[in-house]
Design brief:
The chain has about 425 residues and is of the alpha+beta class. The chain contains twelve helices and 18 strands.
């Protein structure tokens, strides 16, 4: 699989600022000249968003380094371009970690690992399987510095967990994909690394039964930290995973509690420590999804309704994977063969399917986004999309106008398209 290219010429100017002041000066100059900027960290998540039409690329990899780390206070502050690998290595030395379990998307696209940056992770609000128990990336962002699309230096939040002064700007920046401001540094909460983990693996459950199992498990006092279902062919090879973490005696007691509570679903296999870690690497890497000839879709729905999304799209998908207890559904949709139909007919069919997938997600109370494949950088589909919330779109446009009134930051990236 290849990443979706942005609409930027290879000869377009590229700037690599190394300080807040340099970022401010470059954005101020872009505002004066009305030059459009693509904001790039490591570039590892470009295939997860729509293409950007820009005149200049603003690279943030030179804006790197840990600025402050206080293990006792469970807080780390680093420049936005700091590689995620560097942050995780430093935390591991003190038996700590980022609770929201971020990951490098090189696992998805067969690209060189190590490109993911802390700023990119937060700008995209990337969270792994632990999202169901520890919250999203935005819930752990305590503070930031940034430069708005007006060329103004911004600062939000701070280095304390209870910060109730003013607007909660950190949560606004997380998931904004660089469309509101360019993040230059971030203060993030960290947590102790669990000394032990066990994953209960159930085999052969249907999607619907697995969804009920995960819902039941997450409702128990066993404190399940992650729940996922990996359908397979044959169906007997399907895996449903429930992870428990903490101190050894606590994990053992909660495993027994969970096994008793879920006895009607069968007898699971217990995977401990490294075996458990390997099982969850498969989930993060979306290993069951085909790497060729498919477009990947990401549907976010209420966890108890994940299997409904999979069933509604069963005739259109080659494979699915459920994470976050069923709340996150990845679907691999086959791409039409180039010779199977004229281009116009193929585009029309893709547009109809695009609208259908989004409609299924909205009907279930969620939303959908194409994250990989030819549909990701494609023009707007021929078929009209179901209408989203006009109130949310209006609010999104007002926020965008407040931070980037000239539309110079990541132009063409419409975060309201799925609302």
């Amino acid at each position: 699989m290849s990443e979706a290219p942005s609409v930027v010429s290879e000869r377009s100017p590229r700037h690599a600022p190394a300080s807040d002041a340099e970022v401010r000066d470059l954005i101020s100059a872009a505002v004066a000249a009305r030059r459009r900027l693509e904001i790039e960290g490591g570039g590892s998540k470009r295939a997860l968003r729509s293409p950007v039409t820009a005149d200049v690329v603003l690279e943030l990899r030179a804006l790197s380094g840990v600025l402050d780390y206080d293990p006792e206070e469970l807080v780390i502050r680093a420049c936005a371009g700091t590689p995620l690998r560097e942050i995780e290595t430093l935390l591991e030395e003190r038996q700590q970690m980022l609770a929201f379990e971020p990951f490098d998307h090189a696992l998805w696209f067969g690209a060189e690992p190590g490109r993911a940056t802390l700023g990119g992770i937060m700008a995209a609000n990337i969270s792994g399987p632990r999202r169901v128990s520890s919250g999203a990336a935005r819930d752990h962002l305590l503070g930031f510095t940034a430069v708005s699309g007006r060329g103004e230096l911004l600062k939000g939040g701070g280095a304390v967990v209870k910060n109730v002064s003013g607007f909660d700007l950190p949560k606004l920046m997380a998931g904004s994909w660089g469309t509101l401001a360019v993040l230059t540094s971030l203060t993030v909460r960290v947590v102790p690394r669990p000394p032990a983990q066990t994953t209960l693996r159930f085999f052969g459950l249907s999607d619907a039964i697995a969804n009920r199992l995960m819902t039941a498990a997450l409702a128990t006092p066993a404190a399940v930290s992650a729940a996922a279902h990996l359908p397979a062919v044959p169906a007997s090879a399907a895996e449903t995973l429930l992870r428990l973490e903490g101190f050894g005696p606590s994990v053992k007691a909660r495993v027994r509690l969970l096994e008793e509570h879920l006895a009607s679903f069968g007898s699971p296999e217990a995977l401990h420590d490294e075996s458990s870690t390997r099982a969850w690497r498969r989930v993060v890497a979306l290993e069951p999804l085909p790497r060729r000839g498919c477009t990947w879709w990401r549907l976010s729905v209420p966890p108890a309704r994940g299997a409904e999304a999979g069933a509604a799209l069963a005739d259109a998908t080659r494979a699915v994977l459920y994470d976050w207890g069923g709340g996150l559904v990845y679907a691999a949709v086959p791409e039409p063969a180039p010779e199977s139909a004229p281009q116009s007919a193929a585009e029309s069919a893709a547009g109809v399917l695009d609208a259908r997938i989004r409609s299924v997600a909205r009907t279930l109370g969620g939303h959908a986004r194409c994250v990989q494949g030819s549909a990701a950088p494609a023009p707007a589909p021929a078929a009209p999309r179901p209408p989203g919330s006009s109130a949310l779109r209006t609010l999104n446009e007002r926020v965008k106008a407040a931070f980037d009134p000239f539309g110079i930051l990541n132009p063409g990236l419409d975060l309201a398209a799925e609302l």
